[in-house]
Structure formats: C-alpha cells, structure tokens
Specification:
This protein is α/β, with parallel strands linked by helices and 303 residues long. It has one domain: Glycerol-3-phosphate (1)-acyltransferase. The longest helix has 23 residues.
C-alpha cells in the first residue's frame, strides 16, 4: 500500500467536469442568521446605544411627519431618496423603535454583499438583505416578500444607488412591486443635508444639520401597475423635497397646481445642474453667507 496515499491531493477522473464552487455572496448570501433573536438584540443595542448617539452628534437631524406612522399597524415599506452612505443609519435611527427594531434594509448586492466580511457586517449592523439595483430579481423579491409576510418592515432606496450629483434619480419599481404584491403601504421619506455631511467618494464626516421628512402613507390601487405606482412614490418624495426647501403651504400649492419642481433636477448640462443645485445638497456650500443664495424652485432661477 502506498503510504503517501492519504497525503496526496485527490485527482479527478479524465473527462469529468469540476463542480462549480458556490460563492455564497452577493444575491446568494444567506441573512437568516441576522434575524435570530440574539443577533436582533445585539443589533438593537448597537443602533440605540452607539449608532443613534453618533448620528445625533454628527448630523443633528430634525425629524418631521412622524405622526404619519402612528396609525400604521403591521409591516410597511419605507422608500427614501439616497444621496449618502449616512442615509441608512440616519433613517433607521429616526424611525420609531417599534419599526426600527423589526425592519430589514434592502442593500445593493453587488456593493454591500460582494465580500463575506462586508455581507456579515451589514447584515448584522443594519439588518441588510441583498437586492439587485436595477431590476426586480426573483430571489431577492421572494426573500423581501416573505419577510414582509412575516411582519418585517422594509427600508429601501428606490433610486438604486446614491445620487451622482445631488439631484434625485428615477425610482425603480422594486418598492412599488412589493407593496402591490404584499398589500402594504409605502411611506415616502425625504432626507435633506446628508450629502453635505457625508459626500460621495469621501471617507470623512463633516458635522452639519440634516432634516428627515416622513410623508403620508401611499397605498397601491388596483388600477395602477408597479411602474405607475413607482412614479407616484417618486412624486411624493419630490413634494417632501419641495417642502424642505420652502414650506408646507407653498409645496402643497405647487402640488395642487401640478408644478412641483422636478425631483431629478433640470435637463441641462452638468455645470448648469450643479449651479442650480440647492445649497443644502452641495457639499461645498459649508458657509451659506459666503455663497449666493439661489431661489427655489429651480424654475424661478434666472436663466
């Protein structure tokens, strides 16, 4: 008997194809462990005792519209604009505890779940689940729907990624599709000032003030498909953005007249879009008195 038999690397018969290695990352990462009670308890302590004080210190959020959440019972979908990595932590810590501690976050599978250590970090700290950015993936949709069916709320950013220039992007249909499929309301949210506090591409936090606005819950109607409902959700966030730059009454008057400023900004060259960006969304505008204050809405600004 060959004494080295047990020490040699095994061989594969000729003509046999090797079995593909399963990479359980990305959309295939299993997050079930992060929803077990001991992990949920640890995450609740992390959010309440560590993350929340840090966010309060660095972002000083002013929260509006929490009364819209009070009558809601059971799971819901929270759909917000996305301009900074700060958004998720800020939004979670501003949600009421009964929702915050029983919510999962839809996170980009190709970014937050591309490494096992990153996947484990975000699944633990934020309750994140992997989702496709640009389309409704069957696997992620089934997971999200089953969790909503089990009573979990879902925090999602329908733009699919952070804004590249401070203006909003088109809302994808994931939140609308899940709301129609599961029969749950969507709460629109607008966050102001997060891009200035934590700019895209920067690893530094610049302490500043932020605002978080919760809007009226939206229910999908039987007469609209997911695409039309996604447009209605985007319009609700645009209304909140207008309110953040002006006031409640002016924003509602424009909404009633159908003249709410575009959430996505003007169709113009990059320099013009940057020039028309509200100061609150411009990381370089750290001292408003030293910069020209441009009027809002964009249509009122000089051409």
């Amino acid at each position: 008997m060959d004494k080295g038999f047990l020490l040699r690397r095994p061989t594969r018969p000729g003509g046999a194809e090797p079995r593909p290695i399963e990479r359980r990352i990305g959309i295939d990462y299993d997050t079930a462990w992060a929803r077990r009670y001991p992990v949920r308890l640890a995450r609740a302590m992390l959010l309440d005792d560590v993350t929340r004080p840090i966010v309060r210190l660095g972002a000083s959020p002013a929260v509006h519209g929490l009364e819209h959440l009070e009558p809601l019972q059971g799971p819901l979908i929270v759909a917000a604009n996305h301009a900074s990595h700060l958004d998720t932590m800020l939004l979670l810590t501003c949600l009421p505890a009964r929702i915050r501690h029983h919510a999962v976050v839809g996170a980009a599978a190709d970014y937050f779940f591309d490494r096992r250590w990153k996947a484990a970090l975000w699944a633990f700290s934020l309750g994140a689940i992997p989702m496709e950015r640009v389309k409704v993936n069957r696997r992620s949709a089934e997971l999200a729907a089953s969790l909503i069916g089990d009573g979990w709320s879902l925090v999602i950013f329908p733009e699919g990624g952070r804004s590249p220039d401070g203006w909003g992007q088109e809302f994808k249909g994931g939140a609308a599709y899940l709301a129609k499929r599961c029969g749950v309301p969507v709460v629109p949210v607008h966050m102001k000032g997060t891009r200035a506090v934590a700019p895209k591409g920067s690893h530094r936090i610049r302490p500043g003030e932020t605002e978080v606005r919760f809007g009226d819950p939206l229910w999908p109607s039987s007469s609209e498909d997911a695409r039309r409902f996604a447009q209605r959700i985007e319009g609700a966030v645009a209304l909140l953005a207008d309110e953040a730059e002006t006031n409640w009454w002016s924003a509602r008057r424009r909404a009633a007249a159908g003249t709410t400023p575009s959430f996505r900004g003007p169709e113009a060259s990059p320099w013009r879009r940057a020039w028309m960006l509200p100061a609150s969304a411009d990381p370089s505008a750290r001292h408003p008195k030293e910069h020209e204050e441009l009027p809002w809405p964009p249509e009122a600004r000089p051409r």
